[in-house]
Amino acid sequence: MTDISFEQALKELEALVERLESGDLPLEESLRCFEEGIARAAACQKRLQQAEARIEQLLHDDEGNLRIEPFADGED
Fold this sequence. Notes:
The chain is an all-alpha fold.
């Protein structure tokens, strides 16, 4: 799989889940959707881990000490 954005992988994963939840797919198509869903979930997880690593890197001060700051949730 090519490297896709988190948003694109999540959108595709949601579409696959909707198809699977419909219950109208034949077994082989269901298996294919499930396999694709696993790949999209892994892509989302990879992007989240990369974001977490970047946040941790940004929170280190000039001496390499980790600063702990509250996560802003944007609800201010």
